[in-house]
Design a protein that fits this description.
alpha+beta; two-stranded antiparallel sheet; 4 strands; rod-shaped
């Protein structure tokens, strides 16, 4: 057990030492270190528990957010792949021989597209 102690000299100017500079006394105040730090230690433990709980909650929220981002990116990639395939197919069909072609500046005729 460790104990902190402080001492202070107290001069006496009364009683049999009232007329002498030699009269003094002292007072000590001691405290067990464990008792002295008990409240601070308990507070530190509570703060540590609160911090751990908050860290756990933040990790769960982060994991959920990462999962949502991953899912969204997968849906976006699938959508882009499908639209790219459809556009590629459409362009390929228009570029092959015998495909229907339309004149961008149609003449007076009603049918501006030729096979």
């Amino acid at each position: 057990m460790q104990e902190l102690t402080t001492a202070a000299a107290i001069p006496y100017y009364t009683g049999r030492f009232g007329n002498s500079p030699r009269g003094f006394g002292f007072i000590t105040i001691g405290a067990n270190v464990e008792d002295f730090h008990r409240a601070a230690t308990a507070s530190a433990e509570r703060i540590g528990a609160m911090t751990a709980e908050s860290d756990t909650l933040m990790a769960l929220q982060r994991d959920s957010l990462v999962s949502e981002i991953r899912s969204s990116l997968q849906r976006t990639a699938a959508g882009l792949s499908l639209s790219t395939a459809l556009m590629t197919s459409s362009i390929w069909r228009q570029s092959r021989p015998g495909a229907l072609r339309c004149d961008p500046n149609p003449s007076a005729s009603a049918n501006s597209c030729a096979a």
